[in-house]
Amino acid sequence: MFDTITVETGLPDGASNQVAFQTKDFGAALREFRITPQGILEMRDKDWHPFAHHGLVTFYDRDRVYTAKFSRGRLIGIRSGNPDAWICADESIDPWEVLEHVHTALENLEFDTDLTDRFRNYITRALEECPGTRVETNPSHSG
Question: If you placed Cys at 20, which of 4, 35, 90, 130 could pair as Cys (CB 3.0 to 4.6 Å)?
Answer without folding.
Answer: 4
